[in-house]
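Recap quiz, item 2
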Amino acid sequence: MFARALAQLTRRPLTLLGLCIVILFLFVAVFGPAIAPYRYDTIIRGAARQPPSAEHLFGTDRLGRDVFSRVVWGARDIIFLPAVTTALSVIFGTCIGLLIGYYGGWLDEIVSRALDSLLAIPALVLALVMLGTIGPSPFGIIVVIVMLYTPIVARVVRSATLNIRSQGFVEAARLRGESTLYILFQEILPGVLPALTVEAALRFSYAIFLTASLGFLGLGVQPPSPDWGRMVNEARDSVSQTPWALWAPAGAIAILIIGVNLLSDGLRRIFRYEGQVE
Amino acid sequence: MTVPVLQVENLNVDYRLERQWLNALRDVSLTINPLEIHGLVGESGSGKTTLALALMRYLAPNARISSGTISLDGDDLLAKSPADMRRIWGKDISLVPQDSLASLNPSYPVGDQIAEVTRRHQRLSRRESWRQAVEMLRRVKLADPETVARRYPHQLSGGMQQRVTIAMALSTQPRLLILDEPTTALDVTTQAVILDLFRELIRANNAAALYVSHDLGIVAQLCDRVTVLYGGEVMASGPVATLYRQPLHPYTIGLLASLPRPTPGVETRLPAIEGAAPSLAERPRACVFEPRCPAAIPLCAEVKPALEKLPDGRLVKCHRWREIASGAVQLPTAPVQQTTSAPPRQRTVLQADGVTKRFGESNLLDQILGRASKPVRAVDGVSLRIRERSTLGLVGESGSGKTTLARCIVGLTTADEGELELLEVPLANALSQRSRDELRNLQMVFQNPNDALNPYHTVGQALARTIRRLSAERLTDEDIRQRIAQLLAAVRLPAEYAGRYPAELSGGEKQRVAIARAFAANPALIVADEPTSALDVSVQSVVLNLLKDLRARESASYLLISHNLDVVAYLADWIAVMYLGEIVEEGDADDVYNPPSHPYTEALVSARPVPDPAARQKIIRLEGEVPSARHLPSGCRFHTRCPRKLGAICETEAPPWRDAGDGHFIRCHIPVDELAELQAGPPDSKHEDR
């Protein structure tokens, strides 16, 4: 089924574009240091505030750092952090969602209410409080976003599980004495995967956005290492003199999120037809 | 000569699938005269719904009418503009759909929805249209129509909702009513009442109707003429009486023969139509029925037969109808007598004593606050016994608790009270406390074949896992492979099906795999919950025969649950009838059809649509709805609907078990002899006006 889904992905132009964008950014994230002409913190003497040129593709900022190099170096964090947080949220959310969806009853009531109350806190407020207390760090960002996204993933998995748990094949598994673990991961999980794949792609794009927002607020990766969000913030003051220093990271964020969204939208359309349990 | 209400000639409808047009209906012709109810019979995939929608010009966007004519009262429908069609829909042609809840808007009272139709089409004032809506609800015999009109759809039962959609369809006095399986979702007792209503209202409205159904019994009882559709083509057409009495097409013969029916005292086997209906892309070029036809000759695979008109006006599309008519070709027309199955043994497979299951609908918060609501007694102290190699049939309407009882026995639901014994050894109520051997001995076949198999596991994986889990000895991979091959052969599926995914199987094939899985480790008792209700008639007989064969071969017993009395009677040798969580009658399968029987059983038997237009049946109709199990009626639980209610005693005192001999017990205040006398009367003459 997933092989067929992949074949379908490449048949939709917009989805294919999204896939290409994501692959391009992944490539930059992995090989960034090799591509970038300068280190992210190299200050080029006498080259401050230069407009884009063949030598400096995206120009230089007010300190004389090559904006292109900083964007390329920054790709790693902006992709790595959201990827980790998405993976962790999906793992935790899946386990919680499967358990409460399958068992139901008071366990579901208690855990669901707890998840709801986590969801009720505005994302940025929670992030500001948490990172303000434990101090801004990549680890802090991961903890905050996982806390925010695990309940969302859990709810998606829970509702998919609710649909599957009363189906005949799950009852047949119970009637042959299968363990709960087997039923959850062998019988139910495959049916949840389509919805989960779409949700994971969606979480990933939101995580990128949130990571960049935290960077903008100065709660992300600390200077001098490059963070697209913070680069936007830093370039904000001198936007009239060096607009490129603002547009380059902002554009990178926008293109990456659009790419991930196109991809997740394509996945959703494909799984709506392919992933349905007949 | 009268102008037919509907005349369809050589209609062709195509569907566009994956960039090519596929022929879904080929040269279909149909004539419906005034006052006529025309039955349209066919399996799923035969094109009957496509035809119904094409008549209304309401096809999906990927469908087209490529040729043919449709005229309503002599008026060419295909020439109408979309705006004209919108005026015709609901006014000249109305549809009563299968799923009434889905077709009613949940956010408006039903009275408003009926009133809207007349307001739109007849330009009535708000007050006048409301008055008419209430009048329509009265005409579909809803008690207290003023109150019902103010209710929202979800506040009405399934039967009441269906009456509302009928009232809506009839409110503009349409010329043609299209009824698309309008009673499939209803209980037999409700279905009987609704069918009576159709008959009466269509006549009173001077309308005509097309009744789309897969149920040959209903068509026999309701329709004047019938058209049999298969693979998008008309196979046969004619008056119901002659078509049922002397079917000429092998498909019609097969369909009629494969219906289970009571055959007292004789062990029978149903003649089944093998194979499955072809998909749109795989329809044979010549005769569409040839691959499954028992009378096929080489000519049938080469030349498409013509739809021939017989002297008596019947239509038949078969190369060999003359030979069939003259008797030169003999096809089985009734269940074949069988000499097999060893008689049941005396040893008990399963004994249930006082099984009770209550469901509380209160949530955690309510429980903490002590607001727990009154529990529903779904199963209330039921006792039953199943002997080795026998089949106990459990019948009842929806809400009778039969499924809950079955789930309590297999352990999917834990009974609150009561004792179970499996093979004369006490059995725990909770599934988690049952041993592997006990699990092995108690397996289940589920109602819906489409969710009985995990879509992500192959047939082989599903069977292998069950064999491995439940077998006592350690099996090698080779043993398991052999056992899978053996099981697939037993359910008559090719061995290569082991590598297939459920999505690649038809509904009947999936159910056969599910049966193979239940038999995987030689169980003693198989609980089958409506095993054929989701299947087509022609597939149903295959599955029923299979269950019968396996019972004899594997020496298993069944607890068979169904709302279809004929299905139960075909397989079961003992029948228990359930009503509101209690068993009201049990006895030998042959005795249940005959008096004396419980008034409820009598009503069930009478409500069952018999696939014989000439059959004379007692007409006993249960009015009202099944009461809620939350507020059980006092005394006899059936007294609120019982047509033979004695009086106050039925309302105050629980009825005693009365012994009718040979283990036949009836729970009723009326003594057995009196019941026999009351019920022995001559069958009411059938709807005189026919």
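Residues 403 and 457 of chain B are 27 Å apart (CA to CA).
Chain B touches chain A at residues 363-364, 410-412, 431, 434, 436, 439, 442-444, 446-448, 450-457, 462, 465-466, 469-470, 502-503, 514, 517 (CB under 8 Å).
End of item.
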